[in-house]
Amino acid sequence: QVQLVESGGGLVQAGGSLRLSCAASGTIVRISAMAWHRQAPGKQRELVASISSGDLTNYADSVKGRFIISRDNVKDEVYLQMTSLTPEDTAVYYCNIQGIYDYNRLIRFDSWGQGTQVTVSS
Description:
The chain is mostly beta strands and 122 residues long.
């Protein structure tokens, strides 16, 4: 299996910045896509940003121009640089990585992190 460990969440004032990190471990053969989702209290989980194996990125309209998703293929890590944060960005952020693991069996995986809390004060 592939395990994900997230870090970087915390408390920040409006207008501030945070950088989230997500590290994957396991016998990964190929990562097809990486993404960050978030879920605010009482709201549905939503896709914030994604990045493909070809570095094609996609962002939710609410974060476009403020957040940047990036990846490190050597370290099997994905990052989310968040700037100009607002209280509306307050949520638990989840890392999601999809791909193939196990060099012998080539098994697809869809792993999620435990979530990291981001709180933006006004």
